[in-house]
Structure to design on (172 residues):
């Protein structure tokens, strides 16, 4: 079993359970995590897997092993910097909740989110919204079939979020 925990750092729900205990119990579980979300270093193309040693050994022949030293040190530093991780989490949640409140105040439904993005119900095809946002210089997410009337909105910095909200007011 493969469990993708790319967004696990963002989850604040106390009932959420990580998959790590499954690995510690010796189950055939592989957990994948990335540095592209909470750590914001997607361009480094770095992630890792957690699994029992036998599963890791079986995966080794399929790995290029081509992560350079700077990327490795950057990843190690990111894992150690709990203060920065907490700041990113808190700031992201604050900005996301502000955006969600604004979107809801305009009459759109929003799915609950434990990530650095949220999904808003556009009612009409989300492709129409994406085109209208693009015309205003704002990039938003791709289609998520079969949810073709939902739009993925990533949380940016305050200025980017304000540009999104202004464009949404014009489009809606």
């Amino acid at each position: 079993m493969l469990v993708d925990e790319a967004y696990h750092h963002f989850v604040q729900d106390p009932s959420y359970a990580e998959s790590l205990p499954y690995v510690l119990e010796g189950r055939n579980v592989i957990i994948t995590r990335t540095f592209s979300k909470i750590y914001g270093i997607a361009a480094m193309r770095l992630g890792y897997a957690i699994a029992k040693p036998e599963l890791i050994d079986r995966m080794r022949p399929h790995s290029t092993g081509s992560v350079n030293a700077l990327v490795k040190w950057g990843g190690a530093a990111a894992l150690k910097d709990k203060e920065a991780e907490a700041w990113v989490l808190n700031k992201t949640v604050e900005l996301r909740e502000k955006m969600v409140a604004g979107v809801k105040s305009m009459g759109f439904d929003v799915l609950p989110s434990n990530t650095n993005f949220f999904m808003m119900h556009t009612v009409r095809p989300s492709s129409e919204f994406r085109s209208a946002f693009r015309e205003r210089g704002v990039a938003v997410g791709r289609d998520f079939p079969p949810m073709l009337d939902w739009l993925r909105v990533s949380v940016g910095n305050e200025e980017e979020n304000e540009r999104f909200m202004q464009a949404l007011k014009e489009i809606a």
